[in-house]
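Technical appendix A lists one of the benchmark inputs used to test multi-chain prediction within the project. The record comprises two sequence entries:
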Amino acid sequence: MLAIYFDGQPAIKEVPRPEPGPGEVLIRVHLAGICGTDLQVLRGYHGFQGVMGHEFVGEVAAPEDSPWLGRRVAGEITIGCGACDLCRRGLAGHCRQRQVLGLKDRDGAFASYLTLPAANLHAVDPEIPDIFAVFTEPLAAALRVLEVAPVSPTARVMVVGDGSLGLQISWVLALSGAVVHLAGHHPEHLALARPRGVAAFLSAELPAGDYDIVVEASGSPSGLELALTRVRPQGTVVMKSTYVDRYPLDPAVLVVPEVRLVGCRCGPFAGALRLLRDGRVDPRPLIHRTFPLARGLEALAWAQCPGVLKVLIDCRETD
Amino acid sequence: MLAIYFDGQPAIKEVPRPEPGPGEVLIRVHLAGICGTDLQVLRGYHGFQGVMGHEFVGEVAAPEDSPWLGRRVAGEITIGCGACDLCRRGLAGHCRQRQVLGLKDRDGAFASYLTLPAANLHAVDPEIPDIFAVFTEPLAAALRVLEVAPVSPTARVMVVGDGSLGLQISWVLALSGAVVHLAGHHPEHLALARPRGVAAFLSAELPAGDYDIVVEASGSPSGLELALTRVRPQGTVVMKSTYVDRYPLDPAVLVVPEVRLVGCRCGPFAGALRLLRDGRVDPRPLIHRTFPLARGLEALAWAQCPGVLKVLIDCRETD
């Protein structure tokens, strides 16, 4: 089968179709999305080698006796060992021996087929088109913010960063009824937030006042600096993005105003699928372009262009 | 009256007895304690000038018509303006125009008398000797940990730092029934923790395993480094101490394991007074020596010696 394979450089190549192991299924990938973390893989993130990609929607193609056979699915991307202390404590997502689809020790979704444990699957309702369902993983990551920092309808919240993730976070936060401000640098991205109840500003033009919760999704130390400057005493800064640079943290900035800084990663697929099914979140404005898998290198190149939000890969055409 | 006055250098000098303003009382100070923050004042913290000191127990001496007259009291140290948005939101402790006893725009407790708003006072039960009651403020600060990071009796908790605050935190955490480890550098301090249900270790000799909650009370970036290394995924690091150095924070250290980093400052006096009254916390082993106010400079010098825990100042003798 065709795949985007990374071993220091990305390449389109023929690789063997994977075989599902015990408890696993084979999934024929329909659509896959390129995420910021995939771009970090290109720069050596975790020293990953293998088939790239972790955002996808597809249909189960094997084994024949699986109750999932023929069903359309999204899939959680982390696979714990099931045996260590963290897995036994219910923290399989943080297992030290974990595999992560297309990111760590597990071939990913930029391919005609992938395998995942059946336990990782979520059925995609027939009402949800592929072009919506491919956003399940990033939308779930956006929803995770609400799990780590519950947002009251009376809250004032700011999202820093107007990339694909920042926009999705601002959309789901606005569904809570809270006052949501988005701070970014791309007027054309900020324009995608405003019709959904988000007040969007160039960072330099933010109104005065502090925020109960600030979500840092900019991927740069200056975003964290802005977040810590604008969060209120006893407020919460949710850190959603990683980057190579270190942030020089002054402990007094947290201790004196009793601010909390909360890391936040993968989120609840079921909630994301409900929002997509019910039309509460329409991700289509995020899509820049869709490439066939055979032109995956072009897709990766576009995803790295300034101001480009989501690039999709159609993995069916080459099958 | 006599006072330890700081204006770039500490000095014992005669200053005018303060006059209580509207809603305030005059307090004759019995005992005062020297805290790490007082030592930071000596190094220029906040550019404070005035009478030093914020840990105290005393008795109300004026006005004559106060219901507090003659009562023994401890006092909360922060005074909000009462009018700003933070005060109106119930965050007076974080008021931007706040005064803080002996630390910011308000003369403090290393003196024969101080003034505070009556609203800041807590009655000290007659069963609580002065030598216990003078620990109300630091013990309340230790209890604040339990407010920002609720400790389950099934939790594994580590306190980093075996100074006076770290010891008090380890004592109150052990009262929760949780497994509490203390990591420090002074065998003689670690020995003060062990009889109270705390397993105490030199930092280099900590047992393996991670912690649900780590409290950083060491006052150094290496303490935060240890905390972030040993906290479990989705665990909490409570930051209790400030210091001049910046900590070079790698955002991935919080984002990937979804760790939370929580600043923590002043705490509940009422709970501290209950623990002192009921003999749940006996602070006396922390006391290195008590000096009369007239020898306050000696007291400050002792408080800066390596391994010295709490130095007290008896403010009555010179009145």
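Chain B has ten helices and 19 strands. The interface with chain A takes residues 86, 91, 93-94, 148, 224, 232-234, 239-243, 246-265 of chain B (CB under 8 Å). Comparable benchmark entries are summarised in Table A2.
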